[in-house]
Amino acid sequence: MKFYDFKARKMNGQEVSMEAYKGKILVVVNTASKCGLTPQFKELEELYQEYKTKGVEILGFPCNQFAKQDSGSNEEIHEFCQLNYGVSFNMFEKIDVNGNNAHPLYKYLKNEAKGLFGKGIKWNFTKFLIDANGNVIKRYAPTVSPSKIKYDIEKLLSE
What we know:
Layout: E1 7-9, E2 15-17, E3 25-31, H1 40-51, E4 56-62, H2 74-85, E5 90-91, H3 104-112, E6 127-130, E7 136-140, H4 150-158
């Protein structure tokens, strides 16, 4: 399977094929509302505002698997992100990123770009960079600030 073969549900319940993002550079990130890394929403939004007109999209996937740091409903998470961080990039319904119930897209991403300690997602705000052809280019640890991936985005934009 390829990246564009997967589907996910946006916060409004609408199912979206990843094929809708064909030709775009993507940052896919598992998020949480009550995490020490939650302020990364601000940087992710800044990244989105800076690059959205150049064909870059950010896809956020809330996850409650790490210390139950996103236990709210999809509506509560969406409201939190908008009110506190002005998030305007695409947010999807809450998913699992590890285990038997992991979303198929995340199973694929983890297989394509393993982390330092194997395939599993270790914490909130693990980021994946995908090129305009749907290839997983790089995986970033949760502590890597979104602003630190600008260089890699610029490199893809110049290709």
